[in-house]
Amino acid sequence: MTTHLRPPAAAAPPHAFVRLGLLRGLDTPGDAVRSFGPNWFAAVMGTGIVGGAAATLPFRSPLLTAWATGVWGLASALLVVLVAAAVAHRVRSPERARAHAADPVAVQSYGAVAMAFMTVGAGAVQFGPAVLGAPAALATSAVLWLVGTVFGLVTAVGVPYLMITRHTVGPDAVSPAWLLPVVPPMVSAADGALLVVHLAPGQGRTTLLLACVALFGMSLFATLALLPQIWHRLVVHGTGPAAAVPTLWIVLGQSVTAAGLLANAAPGSVPEPYAGAAAVIAVVYGVPVWGFAMLWLALAAAVTLRTIRRGLPFTLTWWSFTFPLGTCVTGTNLLVERLETPALAVVATALYVLLVAAWLLVGARTVHGALARSEPARPA
Q1: Most distant CA pair in the chain, distance
Q2: What three-state secondary structure class fits 361?
Q3: Cα angle: 297, vertex 303, 308; to 5 degrees
Q4: Which pLDDT tens digit goes with each residue over 163-210?
Q5: Strand, helix or coil at 270?
Q6: d(CA 146, CA 152)
Q7: Prediction pTM value
């Protein structure tokens, strides 16, 4: 998710512009649009999950609800701003937009675009009724889910297709970021399940649930195909550049959350014994995968701390610390809801505190990097 601000160019023009943190390599304000990349949408994901995860915690309070609703509102506003920037980027700099697809690193971030839409859409179901009214909130969520799902299917097929047919990929190029294009269908499965429960029993509800289960399978098996390659790359070739280390957190994934939400939506959507089987699968599948997520969380944290001691430069990859961690919170909370295990409730709360801390840190660094002024460029 590293932003490519501009390719090597000629010397700066003989007039001075104040350079901005993350944008300090730009010569004119218009360059901000030309340098825009899909990796910025990770900020929407990372912000939206802070609100969404709060809604699943095993305790409720008006203050917590207000906090979560406010964070969802911030993610919604950020999505609008980034969509406008993406449209302007496509119109003003189509050659750079095409260059993202030609770049085997940058193209992975298109998955973040799809997930940004769906993260805000999930918040519309959770918090929208109190703000927009139930009909408007559900309609908004459905539209965002549909847009995100279609875009996610395009990335899940299109990005691997480009990697197979167009890109030159070295033996040590495998990265956890390769999961970004294939994770959106899993997010579609989870967020679609939130919509299923609002449909009346019938063929429409059943069809939507089955579609979500199919989306779950698409992402699950694509992820299982990639995980051995990622492990091999890390063990044989190391973590690579320090800026890429945060992408290790992407592996944490969302399948436990999706399995739990699909199980919640199964009654009234499919007949027995399938509805009951979904509840069993949510536990029999969810607990072992949750265990693997905790193992990977410990490994990713250890590698990250080691890299911090050696120097971890700030880039937009830092947003990888947020959304994956948030899915651990939601997955844990759904297991708590089903199993009523106090120990898991404690873990879920601790993970949420860690998530908020990570979000505050990454958000502050992003704002500071984008707005903090540096020395004006000197005349050539």
Answers
A1: 75
A2: helix
A3: 120
A4: 999 988 888 889 999 999 999 999 999 999 999 999 999 999 999 999
A5: strand
A6: 10
A7: 0.88
